[in-house]
Amino acid sequence: MTAAEAPDESAATQGAPASGPAGEAAVETIQREMTVFARRARASAGRMHPELSLVSYTLLGHLEERGGCRATDLAAHYALDKSTVSRQVAALERTGLIERRLDPEDHRVQVLHLTDAGRQLLVQVTESRRAAFHERLAGWPEEDLKRFAGYLTRYNAWTPPGGG
Q1: How many CB atoms lie within 10 A of CB 118?
Q2: Are 117 and 96 in contact (CB under 8 A)?
Q3: Fewer Cβ within 10 Å of end Cβ, the chain: N or C?
Q4: Is residue 93 within 8 Å of 134, Cβ to Cβ?
Q5: Predicted TM-score of the model (pTM)
């Protein structure tokens, strides 16, 4: 997204978002709607592929995007507990969607990679998800789509003070 496509960030909108009653109401609405969005995302992931949770799907996507990585890198990237990632990785290994390989530069390190089956499943689920988004957003004007994409990108790019 170019700067011209990004949502306007005037000086008035860069401070605290909920400085008045209207801002507080908007933040409450955003929180409620994001919760609904998350619930629907989890439910739709199960419908698109019953054995592939939303967490598993995102882990597969990250492995594909990065060309493989360590389980600790997955935990750090998604701010998940190592035990959560370990359980997800074990389940993905059991189903043959990922495999461990020794790091060619450091044989003490195991790197997770998608298998061919994992890659095929990821493509299939991604196409199904994309079709569902297209269907849901079909009536939206292009300008609204760009604005929504910009707002989501901006929201997800936020990092807590201190980078934690």
Answers
A1: 23
A2: yes
A3: C
A4: no
A5: 0.71
Give per-residue burial for 90-114: e unless 16+ CB within 10 Å, then b: ebbeeeebbbeeeeeeeeeeebbbb
Q: Tell me the H-state helices in 15-79.
A: 21-48, 54-66, 71-78
Nearest in space to 54 (alpha carbons), one of 67, 64, 44: 44
| SS3 (DSSP) at 98 | strand
pLDDT in tens, 81-101: 999 999 999 999 999 999 999
What letter represents residue 147's amino acid?
Answer: R
Which of 95, 112, 94 lies closest to 103, judged by CA?
112
**Residue 10 scores a pLDDT above 60:** no
CA within 13 Å, CB half, 87? 6
Beta bridge partners of 112: 69, 100
